[in-house]
Design a protein that fits this description.
The protein is mainly β and 209 residues long. 7% of the residues lie in helices and 25% in strands. It has two helices and ten strands; from the N terminus they run αββββββαββββ. It starts with 10 loop residues before the first helix and ends with a strand.
Length: 209
């Protein structure tokens, strides 16, 4: 797990570290979800409300700003078997491009957005988060960070991106992936009024090598 006590890298420093990789397509094992960086804003505090619904925060009157998006999928191994009881964490910036982290602009943060969530995969390897459509911040396209911790396996840290975002092609992390890697990390949200009014649904399975 990333060290929450370590000073986070400034956003520009993170991009500078990745810059030499631009244009270098990175091969991925067939069918395996590519690894990415944790970024400078891995949650420093998991106390309080940190469940799978990031849109509602216990004690806050208003729900999160932004477009409600349900993120769903299954966790599998490289042979296709589903993995139950694994911990999945997600974290992302709010509708203003601010992370729930003491080194980001806490005073301007949307207090109605939980900022991070975690769950255990079900018996079928399934997971379901209720969050918001990811938003960009300076230097990065919209994305959702993901950490997967399955018993007896190395942790997977990765990021999920929105299909069709122009900034994807300029991003030093996304653009270095080969076609299969980009596809494995791409979300294509669709309207999901059947789940709740005005909501969207993004489905993406995760595969551990």
């Amino acid at each position: 797990m990333p060290d929450p006590t370590a000073p986070p890298l400034p956003r520009r420093a993170l991009l500078a570290l990745a810059a030499p990789l631009i244009g270098c397509a990175v091969a991925q094992p067939a069918g395996v979800t590519p690894r990415q960086t944790a970024g400078p804003f891995y949650p420093a505090d998991w106390s309080g409300d940190a469940d799978a619904d990031l849109v509602r925060v216990t004690g806050e009157a208003a729900q999160a700003q932004g477009v409600v998006t349900h993120l769903r999928g299954r966790l599998r191994d490289a042979d296709g078997a589903t993995l139950a009881g694994a911990r999945i964490e997600i974290w992302q910036c709010d509708a203003h491009g601010i992370y729930r982290h003491p080194r980001d602009r806490e005073a301007a943060r949307d207090m109605g957005f939980q900022g991070r969530g975690r769950l255990l995969t079900g018996a079928d390897g399934g997971f379901a988060f209720r969050t918001i459509r990811p938003m960009p911040y300076p230097g990065r396209p919209p994305h959702i960070h993901v950490l997967v911790a399955a018993p007896g396996r190395p942790e997977l840290i990765t990021q999920l991106y929105l299909d069709g975002e122009p900034a994807n092609a300029r991003d030093p992390l996304f653009s270095r992936l080969n076609a299969a890697g980009r596809e494995a990390l791409t979300l294509r949200p669709v309207p999901a009024g059947r789940l709740e009014a005005g909501a969207w649904l993004a489905e993406r399975d995760l595969t551990l090598g």
